[in-house]
Amino acid sequence: MNTQANIEIRVRGLEKTFGDLAVLKGVDFKVREHEVAALIGPSGSGKSTLLRCLNLLEFPDAGEISIKEKPVHYNSMTPGQLTQHRTRMGMVFQHFHLFPHRNALQNVIEGPLYVRGEKESAAVEKGKALLDQVGLHDKYEAWPSQLSGGQKQRVAIARALAMNPEVLLLDEITSALDVEMISGINDLLTDLAAKGMTMVVVTHDLAFARRVSDRIYFLDAGQVIESGAPEQLLDNPKQERTIEFLRAVGAQ
Amino acid sequence: MRLPSKTPVIIIAALACLAVLFAFTAAHAKAMPESDEPLSMAMSGAFQPFSTTDDAGRLVGFDADIAREIARRLGRKPKLVQTYWAGIQAGLQSGKYNLICGSMAITDARLKTMHFTLPYYVSGAQVFAKKSVTNFAGIRIGVTEDSTYVKFIKAHPEKFPDAEVVSYGSEAEIVAAMNADKIEAFISDRIVGGFYIAKGSAGDIMPFGPLLYEEACGISARKDSAKLIHQVNDALFAMISDGAYAKIYAKWVGAEPDLDVLLASWGRFAKHIPPVETESAPTTAKAEFAEKASEMLPLLGKGAILTIELTLITAILALLTGSLIGVGAASRRAWIRSAANAYIWVVRGTPLLVQLFMSYFVLATIINRAVGVEMIGAFGAALIALIVNTTAYNAETLRGGINAVDKGQWDAAASLGMTRPRIMRRVILPQAFRDSLPSLGNNLVVLTKDTSLVGAITLIELTYSARNVVFQTGQAFLPFLLAAGFYLAIISVITISMKAWERHLQRSRQAVGRSI
What we know:
The structure holds two protein chains of two kinds. Chain A is an alpha/beta fold.
């Protein structure tokens, strides 16, 4: 692990409230370039909301976000700046959210064509290469409805990668998959991490978190309770709530 | 026995219901003991001072008083029926009422399909025009459709050189058309026009040229009601003898009736009084109708073409405007949402017929006056009203479709950096449209049938041409049945096309080789 690597995303004191419900109560978090950060914790702990605040699918109520140490003025952004911010981060969702009216390749090239304004021939070539990379070389023309859950998630990953993001945000992307699909997706992500892709991963799969991440954050009730290297946090947790959680999910 | 599949059972059941329904209505129409039933008499209610309505909506006027007086003298309860002039003969023939007591001029053509009493008043046809009119060149003349005036113009085109004739459903609309600059002159009854001049209700007008011809108005009945004709003649004679007639005449026309002229006309029309003993059915009309059957289709076809034009143009434009308003109604900006919803609320909450009148008599008139030329005619006004109306329904349908699209689609598209308008256009609308297509198709079917209302603003579409055929032939059943067949054909084409389009858009839904 290269501790000298630049910080890609830094978050300080992030707060987010939905109505009466405080979901994030002052979260500090960072991920370095070419590293993987995993967010774990019980349901409702705020992991997904933190992830969605990073690319501003949700706007925080308070707190600082900076990318490569440059602050993000999320309260005074023009639509153009918002687009630019979001294109730096690719996001993959638990339920894929593929565009059902477009085939696999069209899903992948939608962003390059209509957001980045790439030429169609170039976008198609790159889109096919990405689908090859995620193991779907024979599914360019397939509709999402014709694909299995695992295949859909591969298309979604290719769609996110097509924008050449600096960071990949992964929101429980194997939680909705059948067991036999999961390891394939996990291998794909491990491979991406090995190639130096910066990632923030929300997951319930602690074995995967241990395998892929450089640092794990344990969140509970809208706060980061504990963070550290995988071996340290999973094998020698210091906080009582971390120990309880790990015991409850059978990791200890 | 094996039961047939569900569909034929439903069809057979529906046909059986229809047959029973027809049997009931037919039996009801026939079983009418003459003297116990009230004497029902029809008039337009739009022909001041002969028939009009009072503040309570009751039919009043010269015709109404005469009708009530006749019923009283026949010892029967009067039942006055207000009906559109254009359909008044069809209503009589199909047994909706016993008599037409509505200032109907006695003509040879009408005598073929109906019996008439002796004239109950004599008047004449007169052109009335705005005072600025000096000759007929470029002048639009309004007439009530299926009136003796229309036939007179057709028979004597040389008397109206370079004039354009515009047909309206009733005298009331002619007055509205005068006030909205749709026409510069109209033909009406001499007495009626005098009434308008006295009240100033049709603008600054005056009689133009001499009386076109004298007209004698009679009360008409079906060909199977010869006895009733004699009874009414007796009552009329009694009313004239004891002065009741003169009182009613003076009350509404404002002058003494010229009884010499009236009784002189009786001499001319007496030969048309049917003998009491022969209660003949209108067989002649039927025989003529058979000959005219082949002439019907081209006329209906012309109407069908207008119906198709209106439907297609409206369908295409209302899809675009409906999408715009629908997107507005699903907007996250409150003021846009409110404006779009207000539009939908107002348009869906008011009848298309009212919208047609507003478009034709008000909006088009305002625009035409502002521009100084006749920019928006009846066709344009009809299109505006139909588009405005269909837009509201399409917008409401699409609003529902937009809101039904999975919220995750917004997340996914936004995470790619797409802006809201682009997400709407590229991601949300295509899905909303795909899923709304069956309902949009339904709106289109409703629109097709709604175009039948544009007849109210002088456009001779399919239903209107069917009515015209009814006037010509005196037959009510077959023209409307043929028109229904045309509608069914048009709507079948629409339905099949929409289904094909649906299949095309739904192709992404196929789940071939699904492996989960």
